[in-house]
Known about the structure:
Blueprint: E1 3-7, E2 10-12, E3 18-25, E4 33-39, E5 46-51, E6 57-59, E7 67-72, E8 77-82, E9 91-98, E10 107-108, E11 112-116
Parallel strand pairs: 2-11
Antiparallel strand pairs: 1-3, 3-8, 4-5, 4-9, 5-6, 7-8, 9-10, 9-11
Amino acid sequence: QVQLVESGGGLVQPGGSLRVSCAASGIIFSTYYMGWYRQVPGKQRELVATISSGGTPNYADSVKGRFTISRDNTKNTVYLQMNSLKPEDTAVYLCSAGRTPWAADDYWGQGTQVIVSS
C-alpha cells in the first residue's frame, strides 16, 4: 500500500519561508519521480516542482528562483523549501510519486495547507 504523508504546512507572512516534507512508503522510493503540486478551491491542480530519481529538478515558472525541491533517498522523503512566499502561493500542497518523467502523478498524498498572509 502506497502512502505519501505530507507535513510542515502552516501560516507564514509574505516574504517568509517554509519547508514542507513528504514521507513515502510502499514504493521503491529511489526509482520514482517525486513531485509537489498545489490546489486552490475552484482552480485546476498546478504542478509546482518535480524531481527525478537522480535528483534533477523541474520547476513551474511561477516558483523558479524561490522554491527548491530535494529528496533524501535514504529517508524516503522529498522536501519543498519555499522562500520569498507570496499570498498567491496560498494553497494545499500535495506530494506525488510516479513513473512518468516529470509528471510524477501515479500516487498522491492528502496535502498540507500553506497560507501566506499578514
